[in-house]
Amino acid sequence: MSCKNDSFEPLRGNDDGFTLLELLVSIVLLATISALLVGAIRSANIALITAEHSNKKASTHGVRKFLNDALAQARPMQSQGILSGAVPTFHGQKHRLKFITNLEKPGQYGGLYQLEILSEPQMTDRQTIKLVANADLWRPKRRINQSKERSAQKFILMTDISKMSFKYFGSQDRIKAAQWHTSWTNIAHLPTLVAVEINFHSREGARWPRLITKLQLSD
Q: Based on the structure, what is the number of domains in the chain?
């Protein structure tokens, strides 16, 4: 009589699955990592907004200083036209201003420049405008075949603007009392004051207190 020795093999569980404890630990870790990521993203957004506002404030301060210095040194000069004779070089309109000033450009020698400040629509949004400056080396007499745009340089001062205007204070005929005007053209003498008003399209960010500059060479 033969005895058959059956080997005993214990039952094995499925090694591919997760226990309840491991699943709970994983959920806790995922929740912790998600909370840290949300906090980091929120902090980054706050830092970005703060930096953007600081840059706008610094940019606004720089533009105000540039306009104030350029206007303060405006010159009551005249250009010699071929047919029209002497023409005043200060042309002030509501949304455009052209005048001669002593402008120091970075990396170049200072000198007299014809500076034109105006507003142009932004290509990305027709409801907003940008403040643009055109600087051209001043030449009292130009040749007929000389290009006026040869030395002119265009640069953008500010963007995201909803409204911009100039105003001019003084007596245009030297008889009436001085008052504010929306234009100052074809007048031999300079206005006493020039005001620059700018409103930004966005309520957040930089602000523009009204800039009023006294022209040093005005009568």
A: 1
Residue 2 resides in a domain: no
Question: Which pLDDT value is given to residue 82?
Answer: 52
The CA distance from 151 to 147, in Å, is: 9
Q: Name every residue whose Cβ is closer than 8 Å to that of residue 129 and which is 6 or more positions away in sequence.
A: 119, 120, 121, 122, 161, 162, 163, 164
The whole-angstrom separation of Cα 17 and Cα 27 is 16
Residue with token string 């949004």: 125
Global pTM value: 0.69
Nearest to 201 by CA among 174, 168, 162, 148: 162
Is 86 within the bounds of a domain? yes
Q: Identify whether 44 is part of a domain.
A: no
Alpha carbon distance 174, 189 (integer Å)? 9
pLDDT at position 43, please?
Answer: 62
Residue 199: inside a domain:
yes
Among the residues of the chain, which ranges form H helices? 20-72
pLDDT digits (tens, 9 = 90+) for 176-209: 999 999 999 988 899 999 999 999 877 555 678 8
Q: How high is the pLDDT of residue 72? A: 94
Whether residue 90 contacts residue 76, with contact meaning beta carbons closer than 8 Å, is answered with yes
Tell me the residue range of the domain where 63 lies.
53-214
What pLDDT score was predicted for residue 170? 95
